[in-house]
Amino acid sequence: MQKKSIIKLSNLAVPFTSKGRFYKEKKTTLRNDYQRDRDRIIHSTAFRRLKHKTQVFVNTSGDHFRTRITHSLEVSQIARTLSKFFNLNEDLSETLSLAHDLGHTPFGHAGEEALNNCMKNYGGFDHNIQTLRIVTKLENRYYNFNGLNLTYETLDGLVKHNGPVNDLSKFDKILGKNFFKNKIKFLNNTSLEAQIASISDDIAYNSHDLEDGLKSNLFQLNDLKNIPVLNKIIFKHKKKHKKYSIDLIIRQIIRDIINIMVSDVIKTTKNNLKKNNIKNLKDVYKFNEELVCFSNNMKIFDLKIKNFLKKKMYFHKNVHMKTNYGRKIIKNLFLLIKKNPKKYINILKYKNSSIERVVCDYIAGMTDRYAINLYKKTK
Fold this sequence. Notes:
It is built from 16 helices and no strands. By secondary structure, the protein is mainly α. Helix 1 (33-42) runs parallel beside helix 4 and helix 14 (317-339) packs across helix 16.
């Protein structure tokens, strides 16, 4: 028997005991169901590989820039803070935060675009759905099943990372038709824990991409002064520039950005729950809009940061040059490996997948440096 947790969760929370998994397993007295999910993700090969996958800067660019693994850890920290405030299931929020980027390719979103182009006639590629392939099919750690056999609640949160799903065609093409066997209610809202993981992703990458951009000198603090809210934060800290180093000032500014965004989410979510009379978990699932979100003013702030980063960082010539090189590597590796897959992959493990999907899985799982080294060897 599993020990009952002494923690009393809110009526809005997903309970510590799951509704189940695809394959039945014995309970453990040491951990609840979501702690087991979290630990399976942390011990997975896909999670370890994230340390050498691009967040913004290609992994070979420097040791102190964020990678997918540091980003995922930072998302989980913010998500736990928010879940704790609302007395929700912190373990589920943490699990979803750590898992949300497992499906990313090498070279970040540029790699994803390149791989999607390679797969356009074979079902396409989507890193969120690839995460589901990894946790349900590709990880190979157990005798009795493929994947990690995560709880239905964790799978629900991963499926609906961007909200309820109206179009299942991409899921059918990449995972297989009716893969979830009616265990996931695609049109329902997802849990507050999953909504928290999603907005924590936004908070983490906005703030930390700003920090990495400043540290790499792609832009300066003065360039940010035209963004409302941010200009006040910068002014407050720049008064201290004679006493403290610019690096320390930048860190304090990033802390303030995270704090105001988290505080805004708390205030807005509290208002949403009260205004819409959300009393229990059923109410959460039935409600057809996001409950965990920014206020309108913070949405404007969030959008301005995203637009600034797109212009000054993601499309900066130095970043673009390396990500374009990544696109080229993905395209060439796909064509090369597809010609002779047996040379690179044990295709016997993939009985029910097309050659193109097998090659896609292989490339998507690569780290930046592995893809670069393999490309150089094949030239």
